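Q: Could you predict the 3D structure of Protein kinase domain-containing protein?
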Amino acid sequence: MPAIPTSIEGHDLSKLLKIAEKTVKAKTDNSQILDVSLEERIPKFESSELTLGTVLGRGGFCVVNEIVAIKLKDVSQGASNAEKVADDDINHIVQDRGFMQANCLRGKGKDCRYAIKKLQDTSFNDASTFINGVVDLAVEARFLAVIRHPNIIKMRATCLGTPFSPEYFVILDRLYDIMGQRITKWKKKQPKGLGRMMDRKGKKELAFWLERVTVAYDLGCAIKYLHDSNIIYRDIKPDNIGFDVRDDVKLFDLGLVKEIDLNVRDKDGNFKLTGDTGSPRYMAPEIALHKPYNENVDVYSFCILMWQMFKMETPFEGYNMGMFQKKVVAGGARPAPDPKWPPEINNMLRRGWGDAKQRPSMEDVCEVLRSEISQNSDEEINEILDASRKSEMSLHRGF
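A: Sure. Here are the predicted structure tokens for Protein kinase domain-containing protein:
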């Protein structure tokens, strides 16, 4: 990365960082779940202790690289705020840093365990972009320090120093597939000559269906977990969903999450929150229209995503922004559920992307998916799913 500039568009960098710090404070001051003591227990690294490899992805503000090696300068250095951390926690931090150094690569050294997320070069070209990038990364780090769910990416460590530094980074578990890539793979391996799904005659066809339903269920449980913690995700899309080396689905990129205060709901159960937040293709109409909204905007986005996973096609493909605003946001156009899919699934999708007041909760959505899996699983189906899973894992090891 080039040298960090001292100013951006004539604005002193330190002043921009102060603005970012105030913004994060305003976003998180009244949080009921954030816990500074948990944040202090996260291991810390200097950038010079890390050797970076391939770029895995880029977003609006950040770049993600795999970490190919960790070489500690001082094993105990990661306990940066020792005066604030109990002795037992300091020992755990030291042990975690040592473990990460010794186990940076899996098995025989082919698979990287960890990835680093930091601001990308282009975020330093524009003052507003820089501030937003610092804010997003700092907010994400604070929430990842306290969130614990098997289908939400785990933060393993952070930068030694304040989040309001241009060189700040977080260390995450490395992912080996993004949902868009997985959908392409699913489409290529789709069994030919599918009959009506409800006939349930072909075991392979059924297993292929249940594979996608199971991924949707796991992902839905992660979103439900956030909602149970009074957190709205607000950015559900294929680019924010990946698969780890064990092929477990993971929700990542928590920069747009919003913790809600239930005491400030309006009479319709909504909140006055930022509009036009997220990706337009998956964005609930009420967000696009800058109306008050609540956690069921995630239900809308998730149902659009599930249609894409099940159909293996891009929703609203070919729409420009004008068409999208007119037909989808204002006109209520939605993807067409496939008549081959079970009626319970199709009814759930229609309700999920329908009127905001009538949408099911994430708990209801997960129950429909769980029922679909349990009603159709048997030993033979599970063996087919197992074989498919092992095949995906072997593909990962080839990266």
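Q: Anything worth pointing out?
A: The chain has a mean pLDDT of 89.
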